[in-house]
UniProtKB/TrEMBL annotation:
InterPro entries: Bact_Polyamine_Transport (IPR051789), MetI-like (IPR000515), MetI-like_sf (IPR035906). One of its GO terms (biological process) is transmembrane transport. This is ABC transporter permease. It is found in: Cell membrane. The keyword Transport applies. GO terms for cellular component: plasma membrane. Belongs to the binding-protein-dependent transport system permease family. CysTW subfamily. It is a multi-pass membrane protein.
Amino acid sequence: MEKRPTSFYFLAAFFALFVLFLYGPTVTIGILSFQGREGGLTFPMNGVSTYWFRDLFQEQAVGDIWGAFRRSLVLGLMVMVTTVVVSVMAGLAFRKNFKGSGILFYAAITSLVIPSILISLGVGLIFNQLGLKVHWATSGFGSQLTWTLPFGLLIMFAVFNRFDKSYEEAARDQGATAWQTIRFVVLPIIAPSLIGVALFGFTLSYDEFARTLLTAGSYNTLPLEVFGMTTNVTTPVIYALGTLTTAFSLLIIIAFLLSVWVMNRRRARLGSDAGKAL
């Protein structure tokens, strides 16, 4: 058996430390959320129970946790749908060169390099100057799109850059209209990528803090609510909330991944059936 070089063990140890650094805080919060009734915010744990999860579902005197969760969920869905629709439309448009396309492209992705808090401040000021109400569903929605849309656009540009146009040509040869070609040919082929864009849009919106800080108005989203709780909550109930929100995020990711897996299995089965038919 070939002896592994010393560098292998060094890299393995470095990777293990990296994983611990990456997921250690989340695991720690998950463990501390199962403290007993008299437990505190630090180790050692004082008993083991699910008391703080039950307490989380009671009426809280520290804020509007479930209202903030509903707002983040609705906002995430709004951002997700808008990101998918705009990204697909932009991807289709940028398949052909047009005057000003370069300027438009760089203008769309510039928000990725601008500090998030400045985006939040700018959007909030614009709404104030226009006499519009600063609200999570309007100004908050707009500020979050400056974060999710560039990612969606970059994904769609990469997808359409590798898209085989012969499929569209074959559909048109069969008499399909432009809309039918997009609906029955293009969209089914790029469906896994659309799920990826949707996942980006929802997850980036769901936990966005900086771009929502000055644009949410009087009603907090969940990240803002959790941040507020860190200043006045001294019980593990905040850890229970963090554990549940993390679990919810993981369930969303798993659901999207399962959708892609089912879609790929279905596509492979259809391809196999078509091959047998030929």
